[in-house]
Amino acid sequence: MSHSNQHRADACARQPAFLAFSDQINARLARATHSDAAGGVVLLLAAAAALVWANSPARDGYHALWHTGIGLSLGSWSLEQSLHFWVNDALMTVFFLLVGMEIRRELHGGALSQPRQALLPVVAALGGVVAPALMYLAWHPSGESASGWAIPTATDIAFAVGVLALAGRGLPPTLRVFLLTLAIIDDLAAVLVIALFYSGGLQWNMLPVAALGVLGVLGLQTFGIRRAWWYVPPGAVLWWGIWQTGAHPTLAGVALGLMTPVHVLAGRESAAPVERVAAALHPWVAFGVMPLFALANAGVTLQTGELEGHSSQVLAAVALSLVLGKPLGVMLASFIAVRLRICALPPMVRWPHIMLAALLAGIGFTMAIFISTLAFPDANLLNAAKLGVLLASASAALLALAWGWHLRRR
Does residue 289 form part of some domain? Predict the structure, then answer.
């Protein structure tokens, strides 16, 4: 056999091995893009980058970037908002859409399909809202600092789910659904608190616009239209209507997710829209929307030199209310509800798992920082509250990771 023929034979012999290796790499990449752990790592790296950037000599550029105006126009109509708005209020709607679809799927045939099990995360979330608020008010019952009582009531869904994934495998899958439901009820409660206590109230006259968007979605479903892009226009109307009422427009994502069909049309689909759309959106949300969101919101300029008097007390109250008050409220409310037989633990979930979810609920981060900006016009109190949120969220994440790894070893 000539040298060239031998070379071709060796190449052919190596080709199946190379193809097998290539398939293995592609499979691993596919799993990585759908992994909460990988998304959690990217999210934490983006948050760390924002924190470093906001405290570097280039911090003015960081804040100027997110205040850059970006507008849309159509004929005589125009809308211009900051880049920060488009990230937090528009792109985040896609994340809440994904969360809504996951809860819709579980309500249909999963862990939330049993009423006593579905009620438990709702009760736990209410306990996780009331307890830290009372703990904060016990520290600051009156005065300017008392207006920060709602700061420790919210849970950051993205960070909590990312840290849960980093805690490792071997945990019950229903625990993630429990945490998702708890966190989204927390955020809905926080949005309601903002509307009632930190704004001029809701503009009820704009509710018909939001209702028009809902009717558009239901009309398309009635005609059997299953392609996702057809639902963008009525979804945009729903988003606009909710925003104009004064509520957080990302609620439109939750509403759309909960309305997504869960049944397969025989002969036309291999998977239900709730499965198909969620699978398509997941990598875009995990590796696009959420890291960008963290980059836009985690850049808190730390000014520890100004933490004196009430400022240091606000920092301590926010941090302890999140790290201690939040888990205490979740655990106490859950325990009472189960003991009174109002609720039942999800399948395969035990009290140590509920403790893990309670610790994760102490990760306030974004919504807590947002409420801080509404609660404190004073710059010193605002910086103290933000620093308290960051310290509490980091502490809660570390405690949850340690407890999760302990559960894995058991």
Answer: yes
Hey, is 126 helix, strand or coil?
helix
C-beta of residue 384 within 8 angstroms of C-beta of residue 314: yes
Strand partners, 82: 69
CA distance 288 to 63: 20
Supply the DSSP symbol for 114.
S
Query: CA distances (Å), 151 to each of 188, 330, 398, in order?
Result: 14, 16, 20
CA 309 to the chain's CA centroid: 33
Structural domain includes residue 28: no
Average pLDDT of 93-97? 89
Query: Looking at residue 197, which CATH number applies to its domain?
Result: 1.20.1530.10
User: What is d(CA 83, CA 88) in angstroms, rounded to the nearest whole number?
Assistant: 9
Domain count along the chain: 1
8 A C-beta contact, residue 148 and residue 140? yes
Residue among 400, 343, 393, 397 nearest 372 (CA): 393
- pLDDT of 369 > 90? The answer is no
The token pair at 359 is 């610790």
Give me the pLDDT at residue 382, please.
Answer: 84
Contacts of 247 (CB under 8 A, 6+ apart): 191, 195, 202
CA angle 248/253/256 to nearest 5° reads 130
